[in-house]
Amino acid sequence: MKQVKLKDKEFRLSYPEAEIQNDIDLVASKINHDFAKSGEVPFFVSVLNGSFMFTADLLKRITVPCEVSFVKLASYQGTSSTGKVNELIGLNENVTGRTLVVLEDIVDTGITLSKLYEELRKLNPKEIRVATLLFKPEAYKGNIKLDYIGRSIPNDFIVGYGLDYDGLGRNLPDIYTLI
Ligand code: 5GP
Ligand code: MG
Ligand code: MG
User: Fold this and answer.
1) Residues 83-92: pLDDT tens digits?
2) Which of 32, 114, 145, 149 shows a CA-CA span of 20 to 30 A to 137?
3) How many structural domains is the chain composed of?
């Protein structure tokens, strides 16, 4: 059984590269089908850091005209009355009236996605869709519909393929689960 050690933790192979690539093929086919039908030009919003590999591999398979931009959601403490504030960094394009497709590496509780969704809505797009490579249905507490899901996985901690443990493991082409 293939394993990796990152710092103090051991991980075992759970989701080999070929399976990931196959899931991405299916997501790309659905997106291509939907946008070929509507004739709209999707505007992909890739959420850094985790989504960089998924974004690269997915977009190589998109066959309709499309745009992509990379964002980060920065969370900082506002004034005591406003509490935590989320700021969307990196989206300089005008996306008014556009159909956005958020690209996420993983949706766990859905809190990050909800915050991002709120920020994107302020930019008055026509529609916001969500594509995530991985989804943890047991952990999900959100109410945002996930339009394109690569794979639903158990509620375990994983690394690889863009996902990190304390900054490490993003470079791994396979996905591993914490033992
Ligand atoms: P959420 O807000 O949906 O709970 O979590 C989203 C973020 O938490 C993801 O973008 C990712 O950075 C991190 N995350 C959630 N689950 C995992 C996991 O199993 N492994 C890693 N490495 N990060 C995770
Ligand atoms: Mg993410
Ligand atoms: Mg992380």
Assistant:
1) 777 899 999 9
2) 32
3) 1
Name the active-site residue from 25, 108, 156, 174: 108
What is the DSSP track for the chain? --EEEETTEEEEEEE-HHHHHHHHHHHHHHHHHHHHHH----EEEEETTTTHHHHHHHHTT--S--EEEEEEEEEEE--TTT-EEEEEES--S--TT-EEEEEEEEESSSHHHHHHHHHHHTT--SEEEEEEEEE-TTT-------SEEEEE--S--EEBTTB-BTTB-TT-SSEEEE-
Residue 170 lies in a domain: no
Distance (angstroms) between ligand 1 centre and the Cα of 69 equals 21
In a mutational test of the pocket of ligand 1, which residue from 11, 14, 53, 106 has the highest number of ligand atoms less than 8 Å from its CB?
Answer: 106
The answer to whether residue 25 sits within a structural domain is yes
Hey, whose CA ends up nearest to atom 15 of ligand 1? Answer: 108
